[in-house]
Structure prediction request, 157 residues.
Amino acid sequence: MATEDHLDGRRPDVACALDIQVDGARREAGLAGHAIAALRAATERAGLRELVCPLRPPDKAAEPFTPMADYAARTRADGLPADRWLRAHVRQGARVVKVAPFAMVVVGTLAQWRSWTGEPFDTQGPLAVPGALAPVLCEPTRDLATYVEPNVWVRHG
Prediction:
């Protein structure tokens, strides 16, 4: 679609931040808020009407069996999202738009999954894997494991 728009002479009007990362040693220093603010400012300087961001709430990994929609809907007593990454965006003026249930799919052999995770992958069914936001479906009889990760889209602007 973007290529067609370009070829047809249509100008973009939305920016998308695909990745914002803060080094683990620098977390809790307020850098995430600065990064979001810088992206919002760059979007405005470019004359674009809004910034959209697909978010991977990292704390969700502690609850891989909780549906992302339920997780993302949680709020604190002050009405802000319970999740710190969603909260950082909402504090900067974002609105949660919706959950993308199939944001990333990773399929591999059991040997591949073992090498990637250090986990045994010898049990049939959904398995919790450290760092994963959702369970990994392990199918030993097929020598296959599949991970389907959801994310949450927010809109600034």
